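hi! just following up on the protien thing from before. the input was this:
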Amino acid sequence: MQRLSVVIVCKNGAKVIGETIKSFSGLTDDILIYDNGSTDDTKDIVKQSNARLVEGAWEGFGKTKNKANALAKYDWILSLDADEAIDEELKESLLKEELTDEKKVFEFKFKNFLGDKWLRFGEWGNDKHTRLFNRIKIKWNDADVHESLLLPKDIKVISVPGYVLHKTAANFSEYENKMQNYAMLNAEKYFKQQKTSGSLKMFFSAIFSFLKNYFFKLGFLDGATGYHCARINALYTFLKYKKLDELRRKKL
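and the predicted 3d structure came back as:
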C-alpha cells in the first residue's frame, strides 16, 4: 500500500465509478469519493465498495476539489475524476514511488476513450496531466471550470509510466451534451474575467478549432470518431463565445 489518498469529486457517475474504484485496489487504504448530490446509483455503489463516501455542496471545480482534499487521510493526493481509472502499469509505478519530497508533483499520460474508441489524435491525443501532489505544498486554483494546480517555481514535475484511462463519454450524444455544459460554464467564467466576444470571434474560433483538431492534430486518423470529436469541440467553442456575448449584452 502507498501512503496517498485517492480523491474523486463526482456527481451522477454510476456508469463508471465502480470500475474506477476497482482500479485502485492494492494501491491505498484511503479512497475518498466526494459526492455533490448524485440522483443515480453513485452513492449506493460507493457504499458497497472499499471507498468512503462524503457528501458536500458544489462550489465550482477548484474550490470543491480543495475542500475534498482537506478531508483526505494522507497529504499526498491522487486527484482524479469519476471516469478516470488507472491501468496496472501506472498502479505498479505509483507503488514504487517514494513520496517524501513535497516539491515533486507527478504527471500521468492519459488514454482518452469515446465509447470503446481510444482517441490517439486530435484534441484528446498525446494527453497528460499532473494529478499527484502534496496538499501542504499544492492547491487547486478557485476556477469554477477548467481548474488548474497552483505550482510554485521550485516544483519538479516527474513523469510516471502507465496510463490514466479516461472514459470521456459513452457516445457522441453524451459527449456533445457534456461539452455544451462546459461551454456554458466557461462563458460564465470568461464573463467574470471581463473577456469579450462577437460574431467574428464566435465563428472563426469555431472554424479554427475544427481545423486544428481534425487536420493539424491529425484527428482524421481516428476515423469517424475523430471527425465527430473535432465537430463537437468546434460547437463547444462557438457556444462558449455565443453565451459570453449574450451575457455581455444583458449587462449593457
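DSSP finds seven helices and eleven strands in the chain.
Residues 61 and 144 are 5 Å apart (CA to CA).
cheers
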